[in-house]
Amino acid sequence: xxxISKALPYDAHELAQLVNAAYRGDTGRQGWTTExxxxxxSRTDAELLKGVIETxxxxxxxxxxxxxxxxxxxxxxxxxxxxxxxxxxxxxxxxKGIGKxxxxxxxxxxxxxxxxxxxxxxxxVRKELIDWYIRHGYHDSGKRKPxxxxxPRFGFPKQxxxxxxxxxxxxx
Length: 172
What we know:
It is globular, with a radius of gyration of 15 Å. Strand 3 and strand 4 (68-78) form a beta hairpin. The protein has a single domain (2-169), classed as Gcn5-related N-acetyltransferase (GNAT) (Aminopeptidase, 3-Layer(aba) Sandwich), CATH 3.40.630.30. By secondary structure, the chain is an alpha+beta fold. The two termini are 28 Å apart. The protein contains five helices and nine strands; from the N terminus they run E-H-H-E-H-E-E-E-H-E-H-E-E-E.
């Protein structure tokens, strides 16, 4: 049986392995969400994820099937909106509705927290990902933000990158 629940600090190591496998390196190429051709290095680490889990106002939802974490999403309340980041599904089983279930759980969490919108940063070169979010009711806010991370835990871009800020209104 599959469940979606809040991650706990002891989940951080397994979450880091999942996120790095899905976003970077050769294992990520098995799915359609990889950034391996765009950004070199790891996507995150257990210490960073543990910090997210322990920070008031933020959480990571984990999707567990047969005792194993196979998906996750980071959520953080910012004023009257909920930030959604790091939506991740094991690259070997993408396309089975796990990401959609995590997205719906995120939207339910936004409503529970009385947020009027969810927003996220998506690399502008990720057309297939942008299209997926559009199919799920998100739109381009028109805002852009440079990929300007200097922390090696986020990797190093192989080309100039920028983020599109996408948003979806939430009713509660």
